Amino acid sequence: MTQGAPAGGAAPHALPLVVRTAALDADAVASLVDLLPAGDPVAWLRRGDGVVGWGVAASVRTSGPRRFEDADAWWAEQAAHAVVRDDVDLPGSGLVCFGSFAFTDGVAEESVLVVPEVVVGRRDGVTWVTTVARGELRLHDVPLEPQPAPPGPVNLRFADGARSGEEWMGAVADAVARIGAGDLEKVVLARDLIATSDEPVDVRYPVRRLAEAYPTCWTFHVDGLFGATPELLVRRERGLVTSRVLAGTIRRTGDDERDLALAATLARSSKDLEEHEYAVRSVADALGPHCSSMNVPEAPFVLHLPNVMHLATDVAGVVGVVGDAVAVSSLALAAALHPSAAVGGTPTRVATDLIAEIEGMRRGRYAGPVGWMDATGDGEWGIALRSAEIEGPARTTVRLFAGCGIVADSDPAAELVESQAKLVPVRDALG
Question: Smallest Cα–Cα separation from 100: which of 109, 108, 92, 91?
Fold first, then answer.
């Protein structure tokens, strides 16, 4: 059942959502991702923990400049009228929604929040199942058996997306010239790659492979958009707010000694440190008005992933409280942070205008917030990076995305190589 409108939000449904969460035996579920049935499940996973779901108890689609506010208001309405019994009381139990939001304010780009009929979660050794229905209590007779292994794409072919590599390098050179002229300090330019299969793509296939290959990333799927993001835009949990900022990248070689040397080079790179500073500053500036205190480390650390290494900084804060409630939801915090310098640039408005002018590609929900939120507003929202979207009713086309931060001394050829490295996770996951 879908409710909602692009502007103004949806009127509350006549019947409330009835929610029941119960704990499961420790050995009841071996793997969350293996539970996902065919169709359009949702997932948010890291190191085997997280939340997955299927079915649709309620959903809303929004667009335009108020897409976050409209979705947040709809969710507050659903939560306020829901009847919830939660015997677990952990982040991700009780009433939860999953969401994915468009990068731009364009009214043609839809964002979505969905409440699954069934959610299975695991955290800190505790596993639970939640059922949701309109106006009735669903008994916990949900079969929680591993599903057969999904098939991989058939006869997969890759082709350039909106621009060839040469054309994209031309856009990078244009951006470098604009930066050199003083128009802006940084801009993130993205490119896409098109994969085509002879048969419909079962999203569970790449999601399973990403969760296995990139356990330290947040593997996600919402409404056709999937990926394994290394970047947590924001987490709000009982008053504590955290955000992981990534900017500055170098490709790994597979040789441990060589990679350690490259990590040291990355940590000293003036170009990458400059790019990273812009990203951290933009996050701190966006979170500051909502926090009573903040901690911003003075220097980044190097985050090692299987295919690349990033400069990373974890920004933390304590969110303000009004009465007995936290003042702002995790989705509202994500909206305040989006687009950060890590996916847009600096200054933000100048950078996003330049993206619209020279990138030559429709981003859709790529590089927008993706994640989940509970009835209290706690939740986790990542940035939809290292991602792809299954497109069209036939579901035989997948559009892969990668972006690079461009600053004054960026080299177009080096940026193309970096973008190719960032396409590897999803490309390999598709097989």
Answer: 109
Instruction: Please report which residue ranges of 142-269 form alpha helices under DSSP H.
Output: 165-180, 204-213, 256-268
Q: What is the pLDDT of residue 322?
A: 55
Pairing status of strand 83-86 against strand 17-24: parallel
Q: What is the pTM of this model?
A: 0.90
SS3 429: helix
- Over residues 340-359, the pLDDT tens digits come to 888 999 899 999 999 999 99
DSSP state for residue 75 in the 8-state scheme:
H
Residue for token digits 């399973």? Answer: 208
* 317 DSSP β-pair partners: 241, 294
Most confident listed range (195-199, 273-277, 299-303, 311-315): 195-199
Catalytic residues: 186, 231
Find where tokens 């690079």 sit: 404
**Does residue 80 contact residue 347 with C-beta atoms inside 8 Å?**
no
Q: Which residues contact 79 (CB under 8 A, 6 or more apart)?
A: 95, 375, 376
Residues 15-50 pLDDT 10s = 999 999 999 998 889 999 999 999 999 999 999 999
Alpha helices in 82-164 (DSSP H): none
Whether 120 and 51 have beta carbons less than 8 Å apart is answered as yes
Q: Write out 340-390 in H/E/C secondary structure.
A: CCCCCEECHHHHHHHHHHHCCCCCCCCCCEEEEEECCCCEEEEECCCEEEE
Alpha carbons 334 and 97: distance in angstroms, whole number: 15
